[in-house]
Design brief:
The protein is mainly alpha-helical. It is built from 3 helices and no strands. The protein starts with a helix and ends in a 7-residue tail after the last helix.
Amino acid sequence: SVAEVRALFDGNRAAVLNWLEGATEKELSIDLKEATHGFALDPVDAMFKLAWHEAWHFGQVATLRKAMGLPPVM
């Protein structure tokens, strides 16, 4: 259900932000290139890409809403 997906999304997002807020400089500098097959260089790069990913999908939803004649969410 939408509520279940939203709860999982919110829980995972909170866990990531909690980790990020408490991460040390050393933890933020971990090399992730091999583990992510080149997707992210380090945790900071991964966070930027996660934010971009959310924005990308928000734009897709906004485009669909507009095409369906629905009002904008924001």
